[in-house]
Specification:
With 111 residues, the protein is mostly helical. It contains five helices and no strands. Helix 2 crosses helix 3. It comes from Trichonephila clavipes.
């Protein structure tokens, strides 16, 4: 099974340092035991941006706003026997926009 392993900031710095010394991408990749393409991409990023820090992505964009989340919890607590679909319809009517609604973890509905 393939596992994703990110390089920590210290290792990234060591790789950049060796490349700045004039070592080849291939020799640095062999020394660290990583793919040539990873070192090449890291070097290109450093030359373009001036930094070797890994960017963080947020993943999938949220479907609801914090205000929508509060409204969902409020609706679920007001009418405890509502289904998730009914709450979704009420939220759509109240906000005027269609959203795929995640169910808040702190709210349980008793059916």
């Amino acid at each position: 099974m393939l596992s994703v392993r990110h390089l920590d900031a210290f290792t990234r710095g060591r790789i950049i340092g060796k490349l700045e010394e004039g070592r080849s991408v291939t020799s640095v990749a062999a020394e660290f035991g990583i793919a040539h393409s990873i070192v090449s991409r890291l070097w290109r990023q450093f030359q373009t941006t001036g930094t070797a820090i890994r960017g963080f992505s947020s993943g999938r964009p949220r479907g609801t706003t914090p205000a929508d989340d509060r409204y969902i919890v409020l609706q679920a607590r007001r009418k405890r026997r509502q289904t998730a679909g009914e709450i979704a319809r009420h939220t759509t009517q109240a906000t005027g926009r269609y959203r795929v609604l995640p169910w808040p973890e702190d709210c349980t509905v008793v059916v």
